[in-house]
Write a structure and sequence with these properties.
- The chain is of the alpha+beta class.
- The protein is 21% helix and 36% strand.
- It contains two helices and nine strands.
- A five-stranded antiparallel β-sheet has the order 3-2-5-6-9, with no helix packed on it.
- The longest helix is centred in the first third of the chain and has 19 residues.
Amino acid sequence: MRGCLGVLAFAPLLAGVAQSAPLPFSPVMAQTADALKNRIIINAPIIIPYPTTPARERVRVQFVAQGDEWAAVYLDDRLLYQPTNFNRRQEFRINQGAYRLVITGVSRFDVWASGYLDVGRDDSNVVVVTFSKNGGVSVGGDPYAWIPDVP
């Protein structure tokens, strides 16, 4: 009996609270939700671009094949250069950035060296890539431009 009296004593108070509070799906709540949608601010991440200067957008890269073996140079899985008997030195101008470099023999499956060539990181405008079957790859101009794969 005591529990019933307690509920009956607070019944008028609960009825007043229920009348003053808006319903969950009332038009007032819908207007408030629309106002909050308009106030949502999405902060996009700040992306700092790779530092470039207009005068150095392209880097001169020279490939020098040592020895007398025929080879193939692939840059980002595209055939770039095939040194044979008379064209052992070739120069290209490529944009700054990192490229996948694979040097093979005549067959694509005879891989001599593979890794990444990262050009344009410093003030060197000329990078010389010297390679051979037994000597591997050496880079002049920027010693940190060649990043070989770990065997």
